Amino acid sequence: xxxxxxxxxxxxxxxxxxxxxxxxxxxxxxxxxxxxxxxxxxxxxxxxxxxxxxxxxxxxxxxxxxxxxxxxxxxxxxxxxxxxxxxxxxxxxxxxxxxxxxxxxxxxxxxxxxxxxxxxxxxxxxxxxxxxxxxxxxxxxxxxxxxxxxxxxxxxxxxxxxxxxxxxxxxxxxxxxxxxxxxxxxxxxxxxxxxxxxxxxxxxxxxxxxxxxxxxxxxxxxxxxxxxxxxxxxxxxxxxxxxxxxxxxxxxxxxxxxxxxxxxxxxxxxxxxxxxxxxxxxxxxxxxxxxxxxxxxxxxxxxxxxxxxxxxxxxxxxxxxxxx
Length: 324
Description:
single chain, mainly beta, 5-stranded antiparallel sheet, 25 strands, about 40% strand
């Protein structure tokens, strides 16, 4: 189990004022015509039910390619996702213009180094992502991933800003996510951790992030807890875990619900509603809260999946019964 998680972690880590996206990704020629017909919030895709389905096959999820980490902007004018391209992670974007979705493009800020784990704030004003790019252009790249931020301005996005040594204090930082209040959750390897990757949070006050706090033994263990997604209201947390006795596959998605006393409940495996014998990771919700999105990967392929978010409500009901 440990080797499988190490493989999963390694796949995530190896690897002007206007930031625009202008380098086209090569797509299957048979799918080019589909881009003239993609409209609405979800690229003209039929909404899923309670069984996970591949999201936008042939458009976002391409057979034989590894995609992960799909995030919509809250106005549904942008869809970001990551791909693994020749052992380097790249961030792609699709834009919604004139009531149509345009072909995916490689973002300019992602043309060098590893760039992955993108997240957009609920107010669409900030983007967070992970990269091993150098802190200064004259410096060497980082050996591991660090968290960066871009701010929206009148003409697009600012240049990437290093989020600072307080947030990036660990050996590596992965998968930042933000609550509606702007509080930051992410996973990191740190000296004060329980072992491996742990989940931390940092409160956002007066436009400043506080020192990250370990979420404690209800969430973290001597094993690895990665890809932490916080719900907008901070009522539940979804984390990728491996090496646990109840793991179904190489890595599974686990969920914790916040108790009435503001403590976190113990992480629970999300079960066969979501998990499989493969690796599940990169959890997220669509901005309207209707659909749960995640990534699934096996040895030869990786796709983005989505499922009705009622799966989370079913798990919440079970949690409430257990705590009563």
